[in-house]
Amino acid sequence: MKRVIKILAWITLFAGLVLGPGYWLHARYFGESGQDVHPLTRQGADRWQSPVIRLSPEMNPVGLSFRGDWTAPTPAAGAPPLPPPRFQAILRQGEQAAEPMRFQLRDGGKRAGFEERLLLIHVPEAADYQLDIEVFGHPDSVEKLAQPALVVRQNVEAADPRVVAGGILAVALAALVLLTL
Q: Could you tell me the CA-to-CA distances from 34 to 66, 108, 180 in Å, in that order?
């Protein structure tokens, strides 16, 4: 009987890994039908702007990401390292602007290339959109931003949080059973 429970616990653990983290990773990194990369153009010392992009309902849901390269500037001898820049993104449709989204590099800029997912939207009708990015921080930090681009993902699959939570719960229960046997 103990052996059967152990086998079932291992099956539950594997299923939980597939349904929890596996499903979430698939949806986050592979759940889309296509992507377009639009380089941003500099509009001043600390502003960047995307070209006008056409979004339509056939692309729903649409994911928007900000991609670029940033390397930390070398501080003067004995000085603390400069923090990575902070960003503010505003999505515009004609004269209408969405609420500004503020973000900072998640890993503190420890890697050169980055991609920050901004939002997932449903486009009700075909329209032209434009993204403005404003960069805040020490001027030396701002200058280290290179190759900024807007990434538009079409037909993005969002992970169902109930399935992910169920998978994580299955992993936790299976681990508990395996540890008690």
A: 16, 29, 46
Phi, psi of 66 (to 5 degrees): -110, 120
Q: Where are the alpha helices (DSSP H) in 18-96?
A: 23-30
Q: Are 84 and 70 in contact (CB under 8 A)?
A: yes
How many Cβ atoms are within 10 Å of 170's Cβ, its own excluded? 20
pLDDT per residue over 19-63, tens digit each?
A: 899 888 888 777 766 788 999 999 988 889 999 999 999 998 898
Report the distance separating Cα 96 and Cα 14, nearest Å.
Answer: 48
Q: How far apart are CA 22 and CA 107, in angstroms?
A: 22
Please say whether the beta carbons of 47 and 55 come within 8 A.
no
Helix, strand, coil % (nearest 5) of the chain?
A: 30, 35, 30
CA nearest neighbour of 46 among 163, 176, 141: 141
Q: Which amino acid is at 170?
A: A
